[in-house]
């Protein structure tokens, strides 16, 4: 089962995807690079040109959450090659790159509360 949910923010889209009996909603805020809010377990975001960190605020994140981050682009940035997510407080996590991005970097993440 898959479907779209309407949002009031034109820069944000939310979809639900079901695979093998597991349903995870996704929010896409990658149209506006930088920090943002994603209140779903899966998300897409973009690290802005010149940045090496961004913060995602989310009501599904706890200090005990496991967060996986992957790059999502055919031609990745040539300097920002690896990304890690750290959650030190309930309600948000920070994604850090190994270097400042020389282009916007599209990222996917999933939060396991």
Could you characterize the architecture of this molecule?
The chain is mostly beta strands. The chain has one domain. It has strands at 2-5, 13-19, 22-28, 36-37, 42-47, 53-57, 66-71, 83-89, 92-97, 105-112. The strands form 2 sheets. The chain has a 6-stranded mixed β-sheet, with no helix packed on it. A 4-stranded mixed β-sheet has the order 4-6-9-8, with no helix packed on it. It is globular, with a radius of gyration of 14 Å.
Give the key terms.
4-stranded mixed beta sheet, 113 residues, mainly beta, disordered N terminus
Quick structural summary:
Helix content is 0%, strand content 51%.
SSE layout:
Elements: E1 2-5, E2 13-19, E3 22-28, E4 36-37, E5 42-47, E6 53-57, E7 66-71, E8 83-89, E9 92-97, E10 105-112
Parallel strand pairs: 3-5, 4-6
Antiparallel strand pairs: 1-2, 2-3, 5-10, 6-9, 7-10, 8-9
């Amino acid at each position: 089962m898959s479907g779209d949910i309407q949002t009031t923010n034109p820069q944000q889209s939310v979809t639900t995807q079901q695979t093998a009996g597991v349903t995870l909603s996704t929010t896409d805020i990658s149209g506006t690079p930088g920090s943002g809010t994603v209140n779903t377990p899966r998300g897409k975001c973009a690290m802005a040109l010149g940045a090496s960190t961004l913060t995602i605020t989310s009501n599904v994140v706890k200090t005990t959450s496991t967060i996986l981050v992957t790059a999502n682009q055919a031609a990745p940035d040539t300097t920002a090659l690896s990304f890690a997510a750290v959650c030190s407080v309930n309600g948000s996590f920070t994604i850090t790159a190994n270097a400042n991005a020389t282009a916007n970097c599209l990222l996917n993440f999933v939060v396991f509360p």
